[in-house]
Amino acid sequence: MKFMFDDPTFSYEALRTLSYAPYGGADVGEVLTTAAAIEENNFESWYTHWLALADRVFARGKSFEQTGHMLSASQNYLKASNYYRSAEFFLHGNPDDPRLLATWSMSRDAFQKGIRLSNQCAEIVAIPYEDTTMPGYLYTIDDQPRPTLLVHGGYDSTGDELYFQVVIDALAHGITP
Asked: Does 3.30.1360.40 match the CATH number of domain 8-172?
């Protein structure tokens, strides 16, 4: 598959980032402009360009928040979270790279700011598991009992990322994810 890149992995990851646009997780123009600037098969170029976009969008969210425009702040923080996730994606090739955890943390922080400022009823939860807990989110529509969907990703996805499409669609269909 070719989309913006000859490399199928770069193409897929660019499409993945773009695919969240209908759900508020990306802007088509921002994604296309950023992908066009990335040097083919260059992981540093990938990281640098997505990080720069994420930082700009996060700063825009912060500016909106400071001026009391909470919906716009939320929307920008949510997009920034996805762009940070895109930036850190290829860092997984070197688990010792300190940017991996730092960029993932920026993605998580941006997502949680965006959710907190949205009209979405969401709670950060700790799910008991053996001798520890697993982090998660509980999204609700109202206080009525509803079917519940347990949503989780794999190695290369985040629980925050799954908000775009999966959670939004579940809530739209009356399901608590």
From this structure: no
| Residues 147 and 176: beta-carbon distance below 8 Å | yes
Query: Residue 164 and residue 160: Cα distance in Å, rounded?
Result: 8
For residue 145, the number of C-alpha atoms closer than 13 Å in the C-beta half-sphere is: 0
Structure letter (DSSP) for residue 133: E
- Assign residue 24 a region: left if phi > 0, alpha if psi is -120 to 50, beta otherwise? left
At a CB cut-off of 8 Å and minimum separation 6, what does 22 contact?
A: 165
Per-residue pLDDT of the chain (177 residues; tens, 9 = 90+): 788 999 999 999 999 999 999 999 999 999 999 999 999 999 999 999 999 999 999 999 999 999 999 999 999 999 999 999 999 999 998 999 999 999 999 999 999 999 999 989 999 999 999 999 999 999 999 999 999 998 888 878 898 999 998 999 999 999 998
